[in-house]
Amino acid sequence: MKKINWQYTFGEILIVIIGISIAFSLNKCAENSKNENEKNQYLNSLINDVKVDKTVLEANVAALEKKIRTADEVLPILNSESPDKMSVVGKIFQLVNLIEFTPKDNTYQTLINSGDLKLFDDFEVKTAIEKHYSYYEIMLKSYLRLENIQKEYVGRYFIYNTNFDDFRLGKFGFTDEALLKNILMSLRGSFELKLKASKEGVNSCEELLTVLNKKTSQ
Q: In terms of pLDDT, which residue wins out, 122 or 28?
């Protein structure tokens, strides 16, 4: 019977184990490197998205503040004997123009739908991202409120209570001024809510950018 060289056998087994361990470690390193690269790409993309949103929201804040000032000029004149009614016609049309906001959330939606949000193992980063985009859902309710007023009341008023021929003749073409005043007062209230939500949206953008920029600088 042939004698087994146990020393040689154990050596072969040890070489195989070491080889498997090295291959596993290399694969793990390659996977970690790939995940890190993907995470950095997501981080940079999120930063760009949030910067765009912040710029739009800041512009909305300025526009809403202007609308509130305009409403305060127009409302006292409506349904009154003021001789300055023609001077506010253009301002009334400005007030009913919508200010919109559509979040640039493609990167976030990709993170959610692909399951890649798990790449962010930092609790602070993941929480900040989820908190920010959850706030957008709340903020957009204030935007939707204004849109509903536009659909339900403003459009109908302009169809049934506006005489554009009178405007061409230099006359005040809005009839039922009491109704118009009520609609504009409702709009003004919505402007306030929308302004507050937009300012908080800007703050949310700034908070998330602080967290993301800190992560990219590491």
A: 122
**Under a CB-based contact definition with an 8 Å cutoff, are residues 178 and 6 in contact?**
no
Q: Rounded to an integer, what distance in angstroms lies between the CA atom of residue 68 and that of residue 207? A: 27
pLDDT tens-digit series, residues 61-73: 999 999 999 999 9
Q: Report how far Cα 180 is from the mean position of its chain's Cα atoms.
A: 32
Cα distance between residue 215 and residue 109, in whole Å:
20
Distance CA 136, CA 185 (A): 26
Instruction: Tell me the mean pLDDT in the region 129-149.
Output: 90
Q: Report the alpha-carbon distance of residue 159 to residue 70 in Å, rounded.
A: 23
| Tokens linked to 82 | 């003021």
CA-CA distance, 183 to 178, in Å (whole number)?
A: 9
Residues 6+ apart with CB under 8 A from 208: 46, 50, 128, 129, 131, 132
Its pTM stands at 0.82
Q: How many CA atoms lie within 13 A of 140 on its CB side?
A: 11
Instruction: At 55, list the tokens.
Output: 């710029």
Q: Angle at the Cα of 176 (from 174 to 180), degrees rounded to 5? A: 75
Between CA 156 and CA 140 the distance in angstroms is 24
The residue among 80, 74, 79, 111 whose CA lies nearest residue 96 is 74
CA distance 82 to 86: 10
**Span 162-207, pLDDT tens digits:** 998 998 888 899 999 999 999 999 999 999 999 999 999 999 999 9
